[in-house]
């Protein structure tokens, strides 16, 4: 979003006036950053993860490309994550938020008459909306919790993980989609996992991630604005990801499964980079000791959780 303006507030062609100084006009105070919301995008299926955001098909929403521009700067350029591993299969089904700052750039400087100091040509400026931060929210279901000691590349486990917590046959069975009593249709939205400190292994949760802010805009409250936006939106729209019996077709089969379908009850999870734990703790998240530590793209991660009330009122993120 770009607009070009001419600073004509002090422009005068022939009217006599007091001599002006040659100091350039002061820039106006930058507007408050604004946040754009991106709902899940089906057209992301043709996003080419081997190319940057600048080389994507024309039908990819610009706001999502803006989000990827920030993620590429932070995760690919700063942290050395492979470009092809930054975009993943969760992006198309996730909600995304992008925060923008208005940046004022001088295209042509003002010209003053050297004898009189009068303004001959006003300065020409351009205000551009620059994406400076992003976050995403992934709805349930999710794959199993990462293994303690696991090494993951592009979401795939490359080692056996923690030998003191092997996957027993009982655990493996618990991770499979559960049969709904009274019919033979599998409900893949209801997946059980091993219990942790803050998760019973069964309750549906949403996952925040890909929180990124450009380096020059950090320590200015940008990350907090993004986390608050995502948490508040989910609190207000707390039923949006709950499966509907009619959509799943159970009503046509004469099945009453209302009490068995998963419902979100205010639980958030993040897979936090270990060095960012204190940042997430400021927003109320707590480290899950039973999840241990694992590596994603060579970076140590831990699990953290936050529970908020749903509906009106609710939790305030610091």
Automatic annotation (TrEMBL):
One Pfam family it belongs to: Acetyltransf_1
Region: Disordered, residue numbers: 1-33
Residue spans of biased composition, Polar residues class: 1-15
Domain N-acetyltransferase: 204-309
InterPro entries in alphabetical order: Acyl_CoA_acyltransferase, GNAT_dom
Name of the featured protein: N-acetyltransferase domain-containing protein
